Amino acid sequence: MSQLHIFSSLQSFQRGQLVLSQLSADDDVLLRADALYQLLSSADFATGSYAVKADALARGLDPEQFTQVSWIDYDDWVDLVLQHDANISW
Questions:
Q1: pLDDT tens digits, the chain, 90 residues: what are they?
Q2: Domain tally, the chain
Q3: How many Å apart are CA 69 and CA 63, to the nearest integer?
Q4: What CATH number did the domain enclosing 53 receive?
């Protein structure tokens, strides 16, 4: 069963730390809103994670600096949700 873990704030990201260390190969992580600031403190953030580009730009973050994540738009986000059996918003 694949799961998409959606983080919207730094606090939610901190609450999900234990889960992040136990993700299966079918699980994915999406950073959006203020959770994107986590990229600033994690140089080796999980490769293969996703992040919403418009949210980064709205916060003055340059997506080009964070190549370890896949940048997506809102349509891609919908597709990502549909690709998973469960979606968990933290």
A1: 899 999 999 999 888 888 888 899 999 999 999 999 999 986 556 666 999 999 999 999 999 999 889 999 999 999 999 999 999 999
A2: 1
A3: 9
A4: 3.40.1260.10
Query: Is 78 in contact with 84 (CB distance < 8 Å)?
Result: no
Distance CA 54, CA 31 (A): 11
By residue range, what is the domain housing residue 14? 3-89
Question: Looking at residue 45, what is its pLDDT?
Answer: 63
Token output for 3: 């799961």
SS (H, E, C) 60-82: CCCHHHCCCEEEECHHHHHHHHH
